[in-house]
Write a structure and sequence with these properties.
Helices cover 52% and strands 7% of the residues. The protein is of the alpha/beta class. It has 3 domains: 84 residues, Up-down Bundle (Four Helix Bundle (Hemerythrin (Met), subunit A)), CATH 1.20.120.140; 194 residues, Rossmann fold (3-Layer(aba) Sandwich); 184 residues, Signal recognition particle, SRP54 subunit, M-domain (434 Repressor (Amino-terminal Domain)). The protein has an 8-stranded mixed beta sheet with strand order 3-2-4-1-5-6-7-8, with helices on both faces. Strand 7 and strand 8 form a beta hairpin. Helix 1 runs antiparallel to helix 2. The longest helix is centred in the last third of the chain and has 23 residues.
């Protein structure tokens, strides 16, 4: 969503950082460009004016540290003001109340409200170990209650039984009583939506809120609707009083203005963002991390969190034991491919890496197709258990059978086998010579010096030099995310290694000799 804005702002700020000294005129010219970029991104006019005035005031009067260039100081000021605009601190859903905690979901029809209700229920169940009850109050939209019941089954959460003929208020009271008697921690009330904000919708929601006294009133807004989403938030907040916002379709190609304007206009925090269609595609909204992404600094903290949540530690330990013996079969390769899918695919991971924003054009021209991973998993699934354990058995006749069963061709099967042989050879080399193997693997995979995510099979995250990290923080005004002492990969930090995170060959591309992992190519 923020790609266009990120590209514009990065270009403007890069021009400043290349200059040795900055005058007030330089800052004024840059702020005019920033103002134009924000307006084109559909950010509210009054928010843009407040932002640029704040940056200009701080930049002109800023005391420049000796070790920091004036342009870099302006980048820090822009980053700080972006964080303030987005809300400074992350504010997750508040469950600090006497159970059952009532959460009222409101929003317009088509904003993804019912789906988001199911996603939040799964999140509360899986991450917070809460017992959740879902209830649909939508008596107007056909099959709305059935949709929530199906979602409940998908995410493993109980839903209130449907009783025909009841009003939204009656259902809300019945849900609250059922949650109290059933020992539920949270009861989520999914209200009806309309195509526009109308009096009937507001009256019904107001009535339900008065009867249930919800601890949280979350507005679900579609980020792709731009300023309409901001106007909707203002209308709902003015009439019923919301406590937070959930932005959906943040992974879309919208211009990002809604996310940047929402907090400043309504004064209410964005608590969660929807980043995909899957039931687990929901993330906490961290203003500092979003600001870092917009300015091209990446989001390593979120990447590590995602890896920690998706890595199966027991499977990783078993793989590490096999690696120590120099063993690596097709089952192990399939496990690595599935893990990559769980983390959102290669494109999602690369988007969180620092500096990737400046490679946007190269990545766009390369047209990375994450569907290749699905095809490779299909190929492995079409093999017999014996063939997966011993790929050397795969001769022409077997390849024809596998190609027919997986909808692939001999070329794709050969590429997969070549990739497996490369990784298996590396495993054998590591078992014989553990010292210095990471740099050799990086060289083989086009990573250059062992940096990056790829090829770190068994080694967890890449090693981070604390001195260099501290220097980067000073240059950026100390605004890079503070990493905990047990951050994976910090030498001497005692942090947990993430052996399942690596094994992604060729993640150094696109660059000469780097190539793309898993045989990824242009669509």
């Amino acid at each position: 969503m923020f790609d266009g804005l990120s590209s514009r702002l990065s270009g403007i700020l890069d021009t400043l950082t290349r200059r040795g000294a900055l005058s007030e005129a330089d800052v004024g010219e840059a702020m005019r460009e920033v103002r134009r970029a924000l307006l084109e991104a559909d950010v509210a006019l009054d928010v843009v004016k407040s932002f640029t005035d704040k940056v200009r005031e701080r930049a002109v009067g800023a005391q420049i540290v000796k070790s920091v260039k004036p342009g870099q100081m302006v980048v820090k000021i822009v980053n700080d003001c972006l964080v303030e605009m987005l809300g400074s601190d992350a504010q997750p859903i508040d469950l600090n109340a006497v159970p059952p905690v009532a959460i009222l979901m409101v929003g317009l029809q088509g904003s993804g409200k019912t789906t988001t209700t199911g996603k939040i229920a799964k999140r509360l169940t899986d991450q917070y170990r809460k017992k959740v009850l879902l209830a649909s109050l939508d008596t107007r939209r056909p099959a709305a209650m059935e949709q929530l019941a199906i979602l409940g089954k998908q995410v493993g959460v109980d839903t209130l039984p449907i009783v025909a003929g009841q009003s939204a208020l009656q259902i809300a009271r019945r849900a609250h009583e059922a949650a109290r008697l059933g020992g539920y921690d949270v009861v989520m009330l999914d209200t009806a939506g309309r195509t526009t904000v109308d009096e009937a919708l507001m009256a019904e929601v107001t009535e339900v809120k008065a009867a249930t006294n919800p601890h949280e009133v979350l507005l679900v807004a579609d980020a792709l609707t731009g300023q309409d989403a901001v106007n909707t938030a203002k209308a709902f907040d003015g009439r019923i009083g919301i406590t937070g916002i959930v932005l959906t379709r943040v992974d879309g190609d919208g211009r990002g203005g809604a996310a940047l304007s929402m907090r400043a206009v309504t004064g209410k925090p964005i608590k969660l963002i929807g980043v995909g269609e899957k039931v687990d595609a929901l993330e906490d909204f961290h203003p500092e991390r979003i600001a870092n992404r917009i300015l091209g600094m990446g989001d390593i903290v979120s990447l590590v969190e995602k890896a920690t949540q998706n890595v199966d530690q027991e499977a990783a330990m078993r793989l590490a034991e096999k690696m120590a013996k120099g063993q690596f079969d097709m089952n192990d390769l399939a496990a690595q491919l599935k893990q990559l899918e769980k983390m959102g695919g290669l494109s999602s991971m690369m988007g969180m890496m620092p500096g990737m924003g400046k490679m946007k054009d190269q990545l766009a021209n390369a047209k990375i197709d994450d569907r290749v991973v699905k095809r490779q998993l299909a190929i492995i699934s079409s093999m017999t258990p014996q063939e997966r354990r011993n790929p050397d058995l795969l001769k022409n006749s077997r390849k024809k059978r596998i190609a027919s069963g997986s909808g692939s061709n001999a070329e794709e099967i050969n590429k997969l086998m070549k990739m497996h042989r490369q990784m298996a050879d590396m495993m054998k080399m590591m078992s014989k010579n553990k010292g210095g193997m990471l740099s050799k693997m990086a060289g083989m995979m086009g990573l250059g010096g062992g940096g990056g995510l790829g090829g770190m099979m068994g080694g967890g995250m890449p090693q981070i030099d604390p001195a260099k990290l501290e220097e980067m923080q000073k240059q950026m005004g100390g605004n890079l995310p503070k990493l905990p002492p047990n951050f994976p990969g910090l030498p001497g930090g005692g942090g947990p290694k993430l052996p399942g995170l690596g094994g992604l060959p060729g993640l150094g591309g696109p660059k000469p000799g780097g190539g793309f992992p898993f045989g990824l190519k242009k669509k």
